[in-house]
Design goal:
The complex is a heterodimer. Chain A is an alpha+beta fold. Chain A is 37% helix and 11% strand. Chain B has three domains: 279 residues, Rossmann fold (3-Layer(aba) Sandwich); 74 residues, OB fold (Dihydrolipoamide Acetyltransferase, E2P); 71 residues, no CATH class. Helices cover 29% and strands 20% of the residues of chain B. The chains are: A alpha+beta, B alpha/beta.
Chain lengths: 304, 445
């Protein structure tokens, strides 16, 4: 009886040693050398796999960073500067200071400011609607309001305001991944610099029709009059194809253009309310803005 | 009686205006003519503000291969060259003409007598089609001359003439077959000469007995052209379905009708070719139908309308819109598009203004798919609309391409037959658009 136990123990021990030896050798032979930094970098990234960086997911970005040994053109828009600083620490590199971006809706037409000509009851999809007609308000450039952008947003930062029929961006949740920009068939949404103290000045219109035609369909359209271009002291504004555009890299947020715009198409967001002693024209414009806009002062598009 | 083999549906016919004689629509005061009214590359505008034009003056020239000329349908002064809104609400380059009188170019033969002798050589015929800006009047507006340049290695055996008019409500093709029978036959002789063949088949659905009778009688006189009455089924007027119905052949996936030796043209195009070749008249007008269930019988009209006439004037001429109008459609109810702006002008291929009442205009709310497979049975192209629409709604463009989304002819049978009112075709159209863009991007690489 005792021998059987001893034989059993010895056999299993020997078998165990032999098998573990084989496993060890196989493991040595087929070892995959992976840079340990990939795991370290991936750990620092948010792990939402949103694809906002342009790579397939967080790990793909980590692999790309480690492989390239630099951070050029590779940044996590979700984590922003703090995360990239941590990644740079891991990599022993210096983090590039990249400005955080935010999605901006460049249309203020919607249900309130355009004149509804027809009603659409087709598929609730902007791409489908864009193939069929110009839009309920007859503007062939503006937002269709069927919500492809809000469905594309993985961070719950965009939704369609039922009252205005326009998408609104929650700037605290928006990470600037650009999914909504790609989802919009009319390129209404643009990524712009979040700006100092979250303040931004932008033209909330992309209508390239001539002034009269644009104004006919929408009260707050850019008519391409060029007043903003003339008044801008920094050369940040260009008017091309009857449409004004503010270069956010040049704009110093003086808001002269906001006061000048006759249709209130230029929006300034997150600025403190205008003081009573502000010059008259600015006040008037602010007033016009208030009248035309069910939202306050054209600022609320961004703010919730 | 013949018909095509796969799928198809039977919508209500509603050919309400089929017995109403074609009337010539009076000239408008201010015409708007789109520079490009065809499928393919845009044409180059040749006129500018202040130019005097006559009826038939060339307004825009075709510079590319797949492109068509545009001629002035009116005489008068060009007031501006700008953009104009089309009936979908999109802006396109257009020429505005203030109409003064009705002066035609001298080269156009305006006499009513029928000219039977064909003097032009095949090459000259094709050139004349191009010069006169003839496009396919079946709806796609494909430049006709391109079809007659048969590529090397291919041979045309059959000329197929589409007199099917399978879309409900539309009656304009029916009217021209009754009223311009001989002109159409001469047009067919011209087309046969251009192709160097002697066999033509005219397909007409059997809900047009008068047209079948007149056309068959005329075919005695013109040998080699046969009128084939077809069993009623939508979409028989689609070229691939018509080829199948008449010859039993099937056009392979992604290929053109010439692959099976066929060239397909509409009866309207045959008439336009007759006028271009024998009378030197460019394509400046066509017959269109004003109809709808709630339109009074005396207002149901077939009208010969010049290109560039505002739709609103046609509506006013026909007694305005009935009170319960819910939607206006340009084209048939199955494939036509909703008109959102009636100030838009007509184009070469405008075949109707269809008035749909409020009740029928309302689109039903889609409910979940019940996997009944009706759309698969109905699809005349043998596709699976339910699968394609799912793939397209999930942005799976490559998979949709593998499932032959590009073979879809957008006939709308799937939408018509779906008991769950799902927007199948809307989604498939998006897929076609995206896959087309993908293919172009691949070709550029």
């Amino acid at each position: 009886m005792g021998t059987i136990i001893i034989i059993g123990v010895i056999t299993l021990t020997v078998a165990g040693i032999v098998l573990s030896l084989i496993l060890y050798l196989v493991a040595q032979k087929f070892k995959v050398v992976e840079d340990p930094r990939i795991d370290l970098v991936a750990e620092k990234l948010p792990g939402a796999n949103c694809g906002g960086c342009g790579f397939a997911g967080c790990r793909a970005l980590a692999e790309a960073i480690v492989k390239a040994e630099n951070l050029e053109g590779k940044a996590c828009p979700v984590g922003g500067v703090p995360v990239m600083a941590q990644v740079a620490d891991v990599m022993g590199l210096k983090a590039e200071a990249s400005d955080p971006m935010v999605a901006v809706v460049r249309c203020n037409g919607g249900k309130c400011n355009t004149h509804k000509k027809v009603s659409y009851d087709g598929a609730k999809d902007c791409v489908v609607a864009n193939q069929n007609f110009a839009g309920e308000g007859a503007c062939s450039f503006g937002c269709l309001g069927l919500g492809n952008c809000s469905r594309a947003c993985k961070f719950d930062a965009l939704y369609i305001n039922e009252q205005t029929g326009l998408p609104e961006v929650n700037q605290d949740k928006c990470v600037g991944c650009g999914a909504c920009v790609k989802a919009c068939p009319r390129l209404v949404i643009e990524l712009r610099k979040k700006g100092l103290k979250d303040r931004r000045v932008f033209v909330s219109c992309i209508n390239k029709d001539k002034g009269a035609a644009a104004k006919k369909n929408c009260d707050v359209a850019c008519i391409g009059c060029g007043k903003c271009e003339k008044v801008c002291p920094f050369g940040a504004i260009t008017v091309a194809n009857n449409l004004s555009y503010i270069d956010f890299n040049k704009c110093k947020m003086c808001r002269k253009c906001v006061a000048e715009c006759p249709t209130g198409a230029i929006h300034a967001v997150n600025f403190p309310p205008a003081k009573p002693k502000v010059e008259k024209p600015a006040e008037e414009t602010a007033q016009v803005n208030n009248d035309n806009n069910p939202q306050e002062k054209g600022t609320v598009n961004e703010n919730i | 009686m013949k018909t095509f083999n796969k799928g198809g549906v039977h919508p209500e016919e509603n050919k309400l205006a089929s017995n109403n004689k074609t009337k010539v629509f009076p000239l408008t005061k201010k015409a708007v003519v789109f520079v490009s009214q065809h499928l393919g590359a845009p044409a180059t505008c040749l006129v500018q503000k202040g130019d005097k034009v006559k009826v038939g003056t060339l307004l825009a020239r075709a510079d590319a291969f797949i492109c068509a000329n545009t001629h002035s349908p009116y005489s008068g002064t060009v007031t501006k060259v700008d953009v104009a809104v089309d009936f979908n609400g999109f802006k396109k380059p257009a020429i505005y003409i203030d109409v003064e009188g009705d002066e035609w170019e001298e080269s156009i033969d305006r006499t009513a007598d029928i000219k039977r002798e064909i003097t032009l050589e095949p090459k000259e015929i094709v050139q004349r089609m191009k010069d006169c800006g003839i496009v396919g009047l079946g709806g796609a507006a494909f430049p006709t001359n391109v079809k007659y340049m048969v590529p090397d290695g291919k041979k045309a055996e059959f000329l197929i003439i589409n007199g099917v008019e399978c879309e409900p409500y539309l009656t304009s093709d029916n009217r021209i077959m009754i009223e311009n029978t001989e002109e159409i036959f001469i047009g067919i002789e011209i087309m046969k000469k251009a192709l160097g063949i002697n066999t033509a088949l005219i397909g007409i659905e059997n809900n047009k007995p008068e047209a079948i009778k007149l056309m068959t009688a005329m075919s005695e006189k013109y040998k080699g052209t046969e009128v084939v009455p077809l069993k009623l089924k939508y979409p028989q007027g689609a070229e691939k379905q018509l080829i199948n119905a008449l010859t039993g052949r099937e056009v392979p996936s992604g290929k053109l009708p010439i692959e099976v030796g066929c060239v397909v043209d509409n009866v309207g195009t045959a008439l336009a070719i007759y006028q271009a070749v024998q009378k030197n008249k460019p394509l400046i007008d066509n017959v269109m139908t004003f109809t709808g269930k709630s339109v009074k019988p005396e207002n149901q009209k077939n009208l010969l309308v010049r290109v560039g006439t505002p739709l609103q004037e046609i509506i006013d001429y026909c007694g305005g819109l009935p009170e319960d109008t819910g939607k206006l459609i340009s084209g048939g109810p199955m494939m036509g598009k909703a008109i959102m702006d009636t100030s838009a002008p007509t184009v070469k291929t405008t075949s109707s203004i269809l008035v749909i009442n409020e009740k029928e205009a309302k689109r039903q709310t889609p409910t979940p798919c019940i996997r009944c497979g009706k759309c698969v049975d109905a699809c005349p192209m043998g596709l699976e609309p339910v699968l394609l629409s799912t793939l397209c709604s999930q942005d799976k463009w490559e998979e949709a391409e593998n499932e032959c989304v590009m073979d879809c002819i957008e006939c709308g049978c799937c939408l018509f037959t779906c008991p769950a009112n799902r927007p199948l075709l809307d989604l498939i159209r998006v897929g076609k658009f995206k896959v087309g863009a993908l293919r172009r991007a691949r070709a550029q690489k």
